[in-house]
Amino acid sequence: MIGEGVLLGIEELRVSYGAVEALKGVSLSVRAGEIAAIVGANGAGKSTLLRTISGLIRPVAGRITFGGTRIDGSVPEAIVDAGICHAPEGRRIFANLTVRENLELGAYRRADRFGADLERVLNLFPRLRERLHQRGGTLSGGEQQMLAIGRALMGQPQLLLLDEPSLGLAPKLVLQIFEIVREINKQGTTVLLVEQNARLALETARSAFVLEVGKLVLSGPAADLAKDDRVKKAYLGE
After folding, report:
1. pLDDT tens digits for 28-87?
2. I want to staple 143 with a disulfide (CB 3.0 to 4.6 A). Which of 60, 93, 139, 193 is the partner?
């Protein structure tokens, strides 16, 4: 059962790629207003879970509810309309479009004026304001990650899905990105984060989940998981 205050509920979710079962009955919930983190090794099913939530993969069994409404089986654009936006692993920006054009594409489902949200994104990421008319492909890796997150924010999400935001970035930039993620959350957006840097993810999140080979093996307050001997040994190098 999904408890009170839960924004995203996942029950017994199963996803397969042909004969390979990538998610094996995963159940978890994310409360409104929090940052939640998913940690696990490569191949654990973390990105598959985010792609299934955002409608890019159809589950073979299980339920996904958002704000009390069932969304598993919905097409991706309907899930964006419902209030979930996804900044994918690898950024996936449009290299031949300008920064501004990339950001405007993030608002393509909106019928209203989005100037206030564009300004919000540029305030969060001043580097993007400086490069507003540059092509996305000319940006550094860190700037492209900022653009991918900013583009997702242009959809006015209640829930922001972030897949490996620190991947390939210098440590100083990683800390900057995570500080902005905290600010996005403070401004009212719930965040579900997949992150290879388990220590930083657990320091940032309020709740956390550990996936291993498609199964949820641990969950709870992030601070508690950071003290768990199994997590420390497997993911924190202790």
Report:
1. 999 999 999 999 998 999 999 999 999 999 999 999 999 999 999 899 999 999 999 999
2. 139
Is residue 52 within 8 Å of residue 12, measured between CB atoms? Answer: no
* Dihedral sign from CA coordinates of 178, 5, 56, 28: positive
Residue 116 burial (CB count, 10 A)? 9
Specify whether the CB–CB gap between 9 and 63 falls below 8 A: yes
**pTM of the full structure:** 0.93
Show the tokens assigned to 148. 């991918």
Distance (Å, rounded) from C-alpha 127 to C-alpha 130? 5
Indicate if the pLDDT at residue 196 is higher than 80. yes
- Determine the residue type at 203: E
State the Cα–Cα distance between residues 222 and 213, nearest whole angstrom.
20
CA-angle at 126, arms to 124 and 132, nearest 5°: 115
Closest CA to 217 of 23, 7, 18: 23
Distance in angstroms (rounded) separating the CA atoms of residues 39 and 110: 32
* Euclidean distance between CA atoms 19 and 52, whole angstroms: 17
Residue 124 phi/psi, 5° resolution? -70, -35
Supply 104's token pair. Answer: 């405007």
